[in-house]
């Protein structure tokens, strides 16, 4: 991927803008927030005269990375819009209508929608945060890294690599991290935030270990209803802390956590150690990485259909 060429294109648009809005996908993870906050801080350090806004719903569990802004329609309309870490336009988290043909898109997910006046997608990158590091540390880059940007981008990389455990981790990943560490990154503080859960979430983890259904193909599935969340005193965004639990159980190859929403729909979280799951998410209006994807579905029948498709994918994986 030609990072230098796209850096010049993206930087030229930023230079022309007085005001910039940075967006990302709904139900954000550390990479979505980390890349969003990281890019804002890079722009602030490079172009202190520019105004940069971050928009989107903010889960309390990720407040340690940064906070979002509230702006008016007029301010939004007057801004350059950059969308990070979002493969398809329906998942862009913004309180205002977004014209996808006019935005700058930077992402590492496989394209679900081809959109953006400028679109740079690198599916070989571990994270969008890693991509922003490559733009900033490119030999021809004029962007300025700061301590605030480095901490946010480090959190994003750690989050999307599963603390460097996932296959997406590469020599480039470690090279970018080594450069970030020159900016006083709070490694232990970020790790503490990521691995520490409230007592309520830890108790929910016990429930999941005891009640997840495991098929003969090594597929685990757990449905959390609104009643479960109330029983354990859990906010919906806190369930991110339990998504990876089945990864520690011997014999499980892929799994789904299905969380009922207040409107009766189900947020789908799919993870895998090998079987491909993003095509399943795409079948149900979602998307993501081959081994980590998500969607939102309307009924328990569709949840069961997804579990069936997970079993098909696991069978295919096991028979290779």
TrEMBL record:
Pfam families the record matches: DHH, DHHA1
InterPro entries named among the record's database cross-references: DDH_dom, DHH_sf, DHHA1_dom, Oligoribo/pAp-PDE_c-di-AMP_PDE
GO molecular function, one term: nucleic acid binding
Domain DHHA1: 231-315
SUPFAM superfamilies, alphabetized: DHH phosphoesterases
DDH domain ranges (all copies): 19-157
Gene3D superfamilies in UniProt: 3.10.310.30, inorganic pyrophosphatase (n-terminal core)
Name by which UniProt lists this protein: DHHA1 domain protein
Organism, scientific name: Granulicatella adiacens ATCC 49175
């Amino acid at each position: 991927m030609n990072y230098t060429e796209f850096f010049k294109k993206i930087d030229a648009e930023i230079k022309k803008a007085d005001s910039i809005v940075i967006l990302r996908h709904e139900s954000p993870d550390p990479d979505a927030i980390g890349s969003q906050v990281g890019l804002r801080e890079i722009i602030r350090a490079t172009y202190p005269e520019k105004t940069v806004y971050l928009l989107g719903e903010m889960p309390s569990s990720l407040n340690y990375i940064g906070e979002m802004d509230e702006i008016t329609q007029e301010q939004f309309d007057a801004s350059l819009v950059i969308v990070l870490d979002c493969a398809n336009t329906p998942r862009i988290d913004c309180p205002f209508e977004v014209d996808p043909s006019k935005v700058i898109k930077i992402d590492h997910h496989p394209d679900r929608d081809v959109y953006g006046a400028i679109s740079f997608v690198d599916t070989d990158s571990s994270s969008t945060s890693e991509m922003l590091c490559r733009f900033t540390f490119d030999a021809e880059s004029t962007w300025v890294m700061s301590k605030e940007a480095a901490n946010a981008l480090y959190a994003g990389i750690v989050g999307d690599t599963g603390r460097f455990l996932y296959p997406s981790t590469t020599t480039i990943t470690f090279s970018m991290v080594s450069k970030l560490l020159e900016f006083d990154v709070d490694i232990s503080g970020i790790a503490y935030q990521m691995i520490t859960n409230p007592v309520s979430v830890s108790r929910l983890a016990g429930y999941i270990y005891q009640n997840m259904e495991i098929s003969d193909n090594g597929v685990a599935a757990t449905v959390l209803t609104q009643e479960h969340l109330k029983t354990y005193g859990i906010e919906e965004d806190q369930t991110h802390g339990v998504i990876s639990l089945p990864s520690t159980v011997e014999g499980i190859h892929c799994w789904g956590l299905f969380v009922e929403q207040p409107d009766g729909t189900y947020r789908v979280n799919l993870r895998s150690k090998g079987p491909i799951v993003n095509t399943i998410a795409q079948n149900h209006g979602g998307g993501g990485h081959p081994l980590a994807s998500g969607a939102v579905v309307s009924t328990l029948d569709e949840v069961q259909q997804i579990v069936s498709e997970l079993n098909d994918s696991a069978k295919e994986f096991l028979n290779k």
